């Protein structure tokens, strides 16, 4: 197996690397399947048996443990909910660092604190394992369609090697700086997305209470300066009150905690972001944490007198 992450379809390039994928949730399952479709040998591990069966049905291989998944991998990719889960799968005798081979590349695509990424890179280096933090934006639809935005932190050489793999997962792929930089940019992304969803939700309630045709209004707004990827992706959620999770409120609550804490550390004021963070927290406290983040609409409706 080669440790060079290259596309075998390109002249004079070695075969694609063997990939271990840890974490097969809403994002991880379609992303790992896209690597299989692109010709990568993917061995996956997660705690949910049905997700392992899904990967196997897609042409991947199910492993019985992290150690089994990573032992022969050139690349290990992790996609889990938060910093504690990354630490749980990375460290300890049964974790990635203890079982992956020296020279492997660990790509963490979870959304975690920048400091967790920096600490992981240092610990991995002691084992001869290289690390990139590479969180993504685009939600479940972006993962399925392989059009994610991938923001990367780490060394240029490692990024260059990983780029063909990233190209099977996303469309906008950028090295943002040293270890932790990808996570910092992802935190900013989540700030923008949350504020944007909140603004859209407020507009929806305002339009409906004014008696305007909501679909027509959102169509025309989407074509002007108010248009955004958020509005395009979430318009049907608003129209149909369909809050099946593509990205859960619980996870956005975690991310708003990351960005507000990181902003405090560097001395950046986030006045609007802080308010939206509280609205996300309040929605979660009301039992809506498992819903899609477009369910911020429910919070605005409650504030406007609706009994949900």
Walk me through what this model shows.
Helix 6 (114-125) links the parallel strand 5 and strand 6 (130-133). The longest helix is centred in the middle third of the chain and has 29 residues, at 181-209. Helix 9 packs across helix 12 (249-266), helix 9 packs across helix 13 and helix 9 crosses helix 14 (296-303). The protein folds into two domains: 18-178, Rossmann fold (3-Layer(aba) Sandwich); 184-304, N-(1-d-carboxylethyl)-l-norvaline Dehydrogenase, domain 2. The chain has helices at 28-37, 49-57, 66-70, 83-90, 96-99, 114-125, 139-145, 156-167, 181-209, 214-222, 229-240, 249-266, 271-288, 296-303, and strands at residues 18-22, 41-45, 61-62, 75-78, 105-108, 130-133, 136-137, 148-153, 170-177. The termini are far apart. By secondary structure, it is an alpha/beta fold. The protein has 14 helices and nine strands. It is 52% helix and 13% strand. The chain is globular and about 60 Å long. It has a six-stranded parallel β-sheet with strand order 3-2-1-4-5-6, with helices on both faces. A three-stranded mixed β-sheet has the order 7-8-9. One of its GO terms (molecular function) is NAD binding. Keywords: NAD, Oxidoreductase. Residues 180-298 form the 3-hydroxyisobutyrate dehydrogenase-like NAD-binding domain.
């Amino acid at each position: 197996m080669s440790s060079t992450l290259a596309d075998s379809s390109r002249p004079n390039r070695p075969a694609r690397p063997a990939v271990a994928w840890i974490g097969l949730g809403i994002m991880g399952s379609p992303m790992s399947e896209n690597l299989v479709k692109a010709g990568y040998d993917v061995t996956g591990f997660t705690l949910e048996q049905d997700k392992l069966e899904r990967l196997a049905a897609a042409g991947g291989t199910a492993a019985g443990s992290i150690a089994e998944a990573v032992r022969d991998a050139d690349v290990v990719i992790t996609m889990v909910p938060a910093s504690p889960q990354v630490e749980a799968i990375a460290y300890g005798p049964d974790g990635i660092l203890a079982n992956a081979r020296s020279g492997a590349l660990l790509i963490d695509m979870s959304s975690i604190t920048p400091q967790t990424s920096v600490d992981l890179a240092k610990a991995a280096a002691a084992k001869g394992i290289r690390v990139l933090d590479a969180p993504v934006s685009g939600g479940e639809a972006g993962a399925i369609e392989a059009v994610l935005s991938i923001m990367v932190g780490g060394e240029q050489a490692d990024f260059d090697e990983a780029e063909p793999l990233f190209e099977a997962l996303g469309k906008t792929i950028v090295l943002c700086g040293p270890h932790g930089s990808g996570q910092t940019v992802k935190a900013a992304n989540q700030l923008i997305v949350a504020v944007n969803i909140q603004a859209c939700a407020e507009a929806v309630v305002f339009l409906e209470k004014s008696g305007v045709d909501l679909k027509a209004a959102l169509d025309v707004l989407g074509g002007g300066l108010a248009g955004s990827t958020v509005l395009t992706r979430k318009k049907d959620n608003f129209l149909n009150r369909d809050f099946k999770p593509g990205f859960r409120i619980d996870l956005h609550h975690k991310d708003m905690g990351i960005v507000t804490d990181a902003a405090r550390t560097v001395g950046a004021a986030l006045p609007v972001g802080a308010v939206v963070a509280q609205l996300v927290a309040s929605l979660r406290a009301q039992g809506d944490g498992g819903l899609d983040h477009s369910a911020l609409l429910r919070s605005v409706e409650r504030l406007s007198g609706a009994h949900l």
